[in-house]
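Deliverable D2.4 — example input (structure tokens):
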């Protein structure tokens, strides 16, 4: 038996519960891992709040929270290639197993070995934030010297995008609330505080000819404020707001396979994709970790230590 945080029905934080469960049995294409570290993401509370097609694995309640983790392989399901018992791995729980737990199952095609020299804590942040950063910048395909606006730079994905963009030689402007300034500037972004400044006016003054690319992580009215700042609306890439095509932009094209995980890990080893981890919570305190992300106050990346 092991401990897990999950939810017995869809709803708000009040439906979350800490419970015992047997170690799950890995199905076809899955690996059972002992979880060392789980990443915390906005998607976690969205899945708790209501059903999202294709992401709950059709599993019964109670369901376990979390989508990404790093740990050690304990057992293999059928038709698993490239991984062995005892491997240190990181990846996605795309079949609904959850990751806020002592043990869980990951989808083997979306799981990779942790390379020597990379910690489990860093590896646990890469499946969502790391690969998203790689994907949006690959999709933009901007040359060194180009300008990019990261709208909502202060979270885990935003800081990863900014750091990787700076490493590619891009000029990065990032928007966020006052508390996000220090981390954004530390990764090399020119910060615009939307609580104290007119974002559009400041951005136009900094880049009068318009941005070569915009990565939006805020959505809603904020997206509609910054989208006109792009020289070409097709180079507005949104990570969360599916309405971006209405503005002429595009939604991020995600690649969550093993190859992209391995690429993200290499970039992390080289220091080009350095997650800003601002808090590590024990598994027993997982609700506090998720609450910080859910209320929008989190800066950088928050993780849960299950070891």
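Example output (designed residues):
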């Amino acid at each position: 038996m092991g401990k897990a945080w999950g939810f017995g029905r869809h709803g708000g934080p009040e439906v979350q519960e800490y419970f015992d469960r047997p170690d799950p049995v890995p199905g076809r294409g899955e690996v059972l891992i002992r979880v060392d570290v789980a990443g915390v993401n906005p998607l976690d509370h969205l899945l708790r709040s209501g059903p999202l097609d294709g992401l709950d694995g059709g599993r019964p309640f109670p369901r376990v929270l979390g989508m990404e983790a790093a740990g050690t392989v304990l057992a293999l399901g059928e038709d698993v290639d490239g991984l062995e018992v005892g491997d240190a791995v990181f990846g996605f729980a795309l079949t609904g197993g959850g990751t806020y737990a002592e043990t869980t199952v990951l989808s083997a095609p979306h799981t990779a070995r942790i390379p020597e020299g990379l910690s489990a804590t860093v590896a646990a942040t890469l499946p969502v934030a790391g690969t998203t950063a790689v994907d949006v910048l690959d999709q933009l395909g901007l040359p060194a010297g180009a300008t990019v606006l990261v709208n909502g730079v202060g979270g885990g994905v935003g800081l990863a995008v900014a750091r990787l963009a700076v490493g590619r030689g891009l000029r990065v402007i990032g928007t966020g609330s006052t508390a996000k300034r220090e981390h954004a500037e530390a990764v090399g972004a020119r910060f615009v505080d939307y609580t104290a400044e007119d974002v559009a006016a400041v951005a136009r003054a900094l880049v009068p000819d318009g941005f070569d690319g915009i990565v939006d992580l805020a959505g809603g009215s904020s997206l509609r404020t910054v989208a006109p700042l792009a020289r070409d609306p097709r180079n507005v890439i949104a990570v969360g707001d599916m309405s971006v095509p209405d503005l002429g932009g595009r939604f991020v094209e995600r690649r969550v396979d093993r190859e992209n995980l391995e690429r993200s890990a290499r970039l992390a080893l080289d220091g080009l994709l350095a997650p800003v981890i601002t808090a590590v919570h024990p598994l027993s305190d997982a609700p506090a970790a998720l609450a910080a992300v859910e209320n929008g106050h989190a800066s950088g990346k928050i993780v849960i230590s299950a070891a």
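The longest helix spans residues 126-140.
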